Amino acid sequence: MSMIRTALPLILVTSVLTGCAGLQKTDWPLCAAGGALAGGAIGAFQTASVAAGFGAAVGVMAGAYCYAHGDGDDDGDGVLNSVDKCPNTPKGTPVDATGCPIVTPAPEPVAAPVVQPKEEIITIRDVHFEFNKATLTPADKHQLDAVATKLKTEAPNVQLHVSGHTDSVGSDAYNQKLSEKRAHSVTDYLVSSGISRSAFVSVEGDGESRPVADNKTAEGRALNRRVEIKINR
């Protein structure tokens, strides 16, 4: 019987402290009360004064143990310290089940819309008309096909101005008429490629008055034999 009286208090105290270890720090009053009751029950095997003293001692011990070893939430994020992998999360930060900040994926970048200039001039430099002619060669038509593809998507909403140009060989009057023929030649081909004729608000010739290269060289004169298409959106 004496052995039981000696061993039983140790067993009960150990059980109380083990139970308190699973509580939170804020549960220390509950743990202290439980310890006091357990201590009183232990003291019942002795005298009444022993029961009261032992109950108080075990209650204080249990409460202190609970506060020291209990599981808490130091950063106040709602996740207990024992499972909190980010224990220093700033207050108010949304966290996941492990206590770490929830990372919101950055929105996908939105490509800025392509803004077309209100006015654009397409210079058909690769269309090098043969000397003294307004006839389009097969190579010229191939280049104009690319221009037609671009204009087909815009023709209903734009105004097109076509101007023909020549080199300086010949009289001004002759070159004026030749430049007009070249402008109409390009326009007719584009219309045959699917561009509405109503999109062309002007088709005219500027003769030799607007050279872009030196007319003293063959290369320069070839560059001056050109057609420009101005797009007004």
Explain what you see.
The protein has helices spanning 2-21, 28-43, 48-69, 138-152, 172-192, 218-224; strands at residues 119-124, 159-165, 200-205, 226-232. With 233 residues, it is of the alpha+beta class. The protein has 2 domains: 2-69, no CATH class; 119-232, 60s Ribosomal Protein L30, Chain: A. Strands 1-4-2-3 form a 4-stranded mixed beta sheet. Helix 1 runs antiparallel to helix 2 (28-43) and helix 1 packs parallel to helix 3 (48-69). It is rod-shaped and about 110 Å long. The chain starts with a helix and ends with a strand. The model is unreliable at 1-8 (pLDDT under 50).
Fourth-tier CATH superfamily name of the largest domain: OmpA-like domain
Q: Into how many domains do the coordinates divide? A: 2
Main sheet specs:
4 strands, mixed
Assigned CATH class of the largest domain: Alpha Beta
Strand order of the largest sheet: 1-4-2-3
Class from helix and strand fractions: alpha+beta
Q: Secondary-structure element order, as H and E?
A: HHHEHEHEHE
End-to-end Cα distance: 108 Å
